[in-house]
Design a protein that fits this description.
By secondary structure, the protein is of the alpha+beta class. It has 9 helices and 17 strands. The protein is globular, with a radius of gyration of 25 Å.
Length: 418
């Protein structure tokens, strides 16, 4: 586990821009050529062993990209960085989800995955373009003094008006640093996303920790939090899963039709479901951070290489296994992390082994103590009994307490029944 460090706040400001018809044509031309360039670069990266050195790629592909796709200098360089960033993201995802299988003895085995597991190049299907601050985009004053967004294109530079939601006004107070931008077209509306960073107002100090909160993630309860005072909060996931079932049924019906209109509807459903999932994770992470505030250490299981199926394969249906794989647990972790940093709290990940099997009172580890049908944990050694998800949160919280006490890599050993 890496040591805690000073954190910067990272946010994305989303501006709704209003280009005129001529400007829209220029933006469509730019984003489509940029997309085609990214796919060309992606093919080269894939064909050359997933080569991700941007400097070396630029030496080889720069002139070709400019001529073949009419990209200006900075856009040509940015397209290379866009592709390498996408591959590195996939590399990170693969590292967190190794290939798993059961051997002849029924024991789960894990094989680390890297980019060599890709069987085709990464595809860029949506028109897009990344902009560099003060090169490809900047803020300028209009004739009447209003703020306009100046954007580079393959033709002329354009100036567009934009809306700033009230929650984004603080980003213009001079404390935030503007980073790169991305043009986005959603359902015919145009948006410009800008990455923002600034130093956190309150830096987390481990010696001043006021709360240690263990969080167990799952489906019946999307998050169960247990703190140092023995208080538990449950974030119910059953209603969420019912809505998820509705999405799955509609998706299955549309897929069975296979018409062009059905495929268009599938895209709309997918976007709606992703936005809904994102909102759910925002609500959970916001509630946790608001409840505990600054100087809180939130403790999560490190889910790298952990399979819910590994623990409960025989007790879960195929539908339940698919739900476990598809829910955005990692997204919840990301949201909780940046919201915690914004108030001066911190996140750590701890070893997940035995957190669902260990009795938090006597330390016995016994898989059979957990009843998945009744969602109860009953210790066969000391008799302690509680909700099984709460047991997981209690053990995770205990590992966090060990971390605060100086153990930089807290984990549980196995104390089996005599």
């Amino acid at each position: 586990m890496p040591p805690l460090k000073k954190e910067e706040l990272c946010q994305t400001m989303k501006l709704h821009i209003h280009p005129c018809d001529n400007d829209i044509a220029l933006l469509k031309d730019l984003t489509e050529h940029y997309r085609l360039a990214c796919n060309d670069i992606s093919q080269y990266v894939f064909d050359h062993g997933c080569m991700l050195n941007s400097v070396e790629l630029q030496k080889v592909l720069y002139e070709h990209i400019r001529k073949a796709f009419r990209l200006k200098s900075q856009f040509a360089i940015s397209s290379i960085k866009t592709v390498t960033a996408r591959y590195k993201t996939i590399e990170t995802v693969y590292a967190k989800s190794p290939y798993k299988y059961q051997d002849e003895k029924g024991k789960w085995q894990f094989i680390p995955r890297d980019l060599s597991w890709l069987w085709k190049p990464v595809l860029f299907s949506r028109p897009q373009a990344d902009f560099v601050r003060n090169r490809d985009y900047s803020f300028v004053n209009g004739a009447s003094g209003e703020k306009l967004l100046s954007l580079n294109t393959l033709g002329k530079r354009i100036k567009v008006s934009f809306d700033v939601p009230e929650c984004f006004h603080e980003y213009f107070d001079g404390t935030w640093r503007f980073g790169g931008g991305k043009i986005v077209n959603l359902l015919g509306e145009w948006y410009f996303h800008i990455s923002m960073t600034r130093a956190a107002d309150h830096q987390f100090d481990l010696t001043n920790t006021s709360h240690v909160v263990g969080i167990d993630r799952g489906l019946r309860f999307l998050a169960v939090a247990y703190d140092e005072k023995g208080k538990t909060s449950f974030h119910d996931g059953r209603k969420i899963m019912k809505k998820r079932d509705t999405f799955n049924k509609v998706r299955a019906e549309l897929q069975s039709k296979g018409t062009k209109s059905a495929k268009r509807a599938l895209k709309r459903i997918s976007g709606r479901e992703n936005r809904w999932m994102t909102d759910v994770n925002h609500q959970i992470s916001k509630a946790l951070v608001q409840k505990y505030g600054a100087d809180t250490l939130f403790v999560l299981e490190d889910l790298t290489g952990v399979s819910f199926d590994e623990q409960n394969l025989s007790t879960r249906t195929k539908k339940q296994r698919n739900e476990l794989r598809s829910w955005a647990f990692y997204q919840l972790e990301q949201f909780l992390t940046y919201k915690a940093h914004a108030v001066g709290a911190e996140i750590i990940e701890v070893d997940a082994h035995y957190t669902s099997q260990r009795c938090p009172k006597c330390g016995q580890v016994r898989k059979e103590n957990r009843n998945h049908e009744t969602h109860e944990y009953v210790c066969s050694c000391c008799g302690y009994q509680s909700n099984d998800d709460r047991i997981g949160a209690m053990n995770i919280q205990m590992l966090g307490t060990m971390y605060v006490s100086g153990d930089t890599n807290p984990r549980f050993g196995v104390r089996k029944e005599n």
